[in-house]
Amino acid sequence: MCDIARSPLQECVDNAPGNISPKLRQKGDHSISGLDFPCQTIDHSQEEIWSFMERSLRPLPWNRPVEKTSIISPDADLSKVTKKIAFVLYQLSLSSRFDLSKGKIKCVSIENIHFVIRFFRGKDCSVVVEVRRMSGCSLIFYNKYYSAINAAVSGVVRLPSKAKNFPCNVSNTSKDDSDQQASLYRIEEMIYDNYWDTKVLAMQLLTFLTGERSGYQNTKFYGEQLLRGEKTGIFNFISSLIFESRLLGEQCDGYESFELLQGMAFEILFNVLEFSAKQNQLFEYIQNNKGWYDNLLVAILKEIDMPHINLHNAYRAARCMNIIFSTSEELRIKGKELDACSYLLLANCYSSSTHLLLEKETDQAISILEA
């Protein structure tokens, strides 16, 4: 049986007294067989956190213009304002880092949109909430994230509906295989380019080409090429991002670039797994490559075991795991041997107040394993 390096939180569970057996937890119950999990350490709605932020709240500088995206809350109670925002961040599954000393929240969306929320004390003791986009798509930021935060601060949380699937320029009709092969060859060249921006662009193209919006023929062709390992260079690069993540990450100019590439690797993997599962072909691929999929399960569990490092990648890994567990009883047994339920419960507990999508995916994975 393969061993997976245990995180500090997992070690705490392993060393606890008594027999700990993974069970589905009910909402609000953060314990496994009598062991209390320290979920309160990641609950951003604690009274002590907000009271500390209240003390560190600075007045709005007189010589600083107010951002157009600033929101003046009608409620002067900072704790109420921040709790509303914390709830929206959870509902939108944003990866958030709280800088309590500066009254600031750094947010990263699953679309890799970076923005900062800052709190100031305005005139008449009002709370000024400044939402500033740092990078990423401005259209998604304003329509999805800023609008939700604005609604929350105004007192009514109305999360936006799912974005419409706008038509794309990629034809759904069958293309000549030589054109598709040429596209793969060019993507492979870009992946092994010396510049990380070129690698990112290549992975973005491959993420789109393996997705539903590129059309059935494209999804089928590119998915089969990757699952069969026929394009060895691309297959090995994606595998290295998933399997040897820490080693490859040390070679990056910046760890942020690596995390972006790894996230797209999981997206591509999910796209091809989902399509082949719908075509009832995934089980055949798994049977022909048992060793690779066994290693994939171990790599996925490692990623799920580290939601504190990257919540979005843990969510992407959990999505891939759900498809695999739904396909093969043999891999479900393998997951139980690897104690997958414990890892999923830890990630589920961590995401219960921070990342709604990860919470749902881990709930589903546990249900599949416990069925």
Could you please describe the fold and organization of this structure?
The protein has two domains: 43-153, TATA-Binding Protein (2-Layer Sandwich), CATH 3.30.310.80; 177-370, Leucine-rich Repeat Variant (Alpha Horseshoe), CATH 1.25.10. It contains 16 helices and eight strands. It has helices at residues 8-14, 47-56, 78-91, 138-153, 177-191, 196-209, 216-227, 232-243, 245-249, 255-278, 282-288, 290-304, 311-327, 329-337, 340-351, 356-370, and strands spanning 31-32, 35-36, 58-59, 70-73, 95-99, 104-108, 114-121, 127-135. The strands form two sheets. Strands 3, 4, 5, 6, 7 and 8 form a six-stranded mixed β-sheet that branches. It has a two-stranded antiparallel ribbon with strand order 1-2. The protein starts with 7 loop residues before the first helix and ends with a helix. Mean pLDDT is 76; it is low at 1-48 and 166-174.
